[in-house]
Amino acid sequence: MTTTEDHTHLSSARRRNVSTVRSFLRLLEEKDIDSWIELWAEDAEQFYPFGTEMFPRRLAGKTAIYDRWKNTPGLFDTLSFPIQELWTDRDAVIVRFESDSVLRSGRKYRNTFVGIFKFDDTGKIREYREYFDPIVAGVDFKLAEVTYLTPND
């Protein structure tokens, strides 16, 4: 597994996949969902393993993924996803990135993500698993209210 930011020694397929992951985040930041969806294979799948009831556990197919994401940029004034770490392994790229974004309401949205990308032979995303803190997302998107109990409760 490769864990360096210097990807010059990687195979051309791995370099292409790393470039696709960077484009994935950049196009989200630019709110260009029409270009972003072209990174995906027609039969791609997206998973939110910790999405709870607030996010679908699985999206099957490019159309379903587009339908889920097409309005997301409109929820934000700005989107920023700085990459913290990135690893490659065969046809997979694993990336840890942050959200330092501003919602339309003016509130900041900060969360930490781990994305696991798998690619087909042409370099299209065939599978994406997104891990994030669903409590932060649920509260910030007003999908959930959380009350923390004290040890005496």
Describe the structure.
This protein has 153 residues and is α+β, with helices and mostly antiparallel strands. It has a single domain (12-140), classed as Roll (Nuclear Transport Factor 2, Chain: A), CATH 3.10.450.50. The chain contains four helices and seven strands; from the N terminus they run ααββαβββββα. Strands 1, 2, 3, 4, 5, 6 and 7 form a seven-stranded mixed beta sheet that branches. The longest helix is centred in the N-terminal third of the chain and has 18 residues, at 12-29. The protein is globular and about 55 Å long. It starts with 11 loop residues before the first helix and ends in a 13-residue tail after the last helix.
Q: How is this structure best summarized?
A:
This protein has 153 residues and is α+β, with helices and mostly antiparallel strands. The chain has helices spanning 12-29, 33-36, 62-69, 134-140; strands spanning 40-47, 58-60, 76-78, 83-89, 92-103, 108-119, 125-132.
